[in-house]
Amino acid sequence: MLSAAALAAYPAAQNLRFQWAALAFAIAGVLVFTLGLIVRWPGALGLGLAALGAEYAVLFVAEGGALDRYTPAYAAGFMLVAELGFWSIEPRIPAWSEAAVAEWRLARLAGACIAAAVLAALALVAAAAATGTGGLALESLGVVAAIGSLILITALVGRRAFDE
Questions:
Q1: Contact (Cβ atoms closer than 8 angstroms) between residue 26 and residue 55
Q2: How far apart are CA 123 and CA 72, in angstroms?
Q3: Which of 28, 38, 71, 79 is the most exposed, having the fewest neighbouring CB atoms within 10 Å of its CB?
Q4: How far apart are CA 147 and CA 149, in angstroms?
Q5: Most confident of 44-48, 132-136, 144-148
Q6: Burial profile 22-52: b = 16 or more Cβ within 10 angstroms, e = fewer
Q7: Please, what sign has the CA dihedral across residues 75, 163, 103, 149?
Q8: Does residue 156 surpass a pLDDT of 70?
Q9: Domain limits for position 50
Q10: Model confidence, pTM
């Protein structure tokens, strides 16, 4: 819950043209995410995360589409909040208390957060290339970012299906 509030704080604390919208999404996101944690409901966690993502979109729109240099850090934090939230509501299995399993899960979480940050950075590079000054190399990085995003999403969805 605190990590979701910290994630919501960044866009909400900016001096934005649509400050009211950012605050509304921040409050709704944290409240719904917290409700999902309390009642152990994945749907509420997802809606809370969607509201936090919408809050970040407000930041993007309010800045006139300008690139935010903290996007990779936000992406890693978003991945961390999502994974920790879903971990906290999943049924407990005795094997998870074993050190090797816990280390493996934490390593996988760290890898997913790093991958999210790298893909967000590549997406920033691709967006910078969209101005036409980037050339073929930056456009290629954009394609790699898009493909990497799809691979990461597919891996996470496939892992969720396999874990259940």
A1: yes
A2: 9
A3: 38
A4: 5
A5: 44-48
A6: bbbbbebbbebbbebbeeeeeebbbbbbebb
A7: negative
A8: no
A9: 2-163
A10: 0.74
DSSP strands (E only) in 8-150: none
One-letter amino acid identity for 157? Answer: V
* CA-to-CA dists, residue 22 to 11, 15, 118, angstroms: 7, 10, 25
Token pair listed for 15: 């001096």
What residue type is 110 in one-letter code? A
Both tokens of 108, joined, read 């996988």
The per-residue pLDDT for range 27-47, each reduced to its tens digit, is 999 999 999 999 999 899 999
In this structure, the chain runs to a length of 164
Question: What would the pLDDT profile of 61-95 be if each residue is shown by its tens digit?
Answer: 777 666 677 888 989 999 999 999 998 888 777 77
Domain count, the chain: 1
User: Could you tell me the CA-to-CA distances from 146 to 30, 118, 139 in Å, in that order?
Assistant: 29, 12, 11
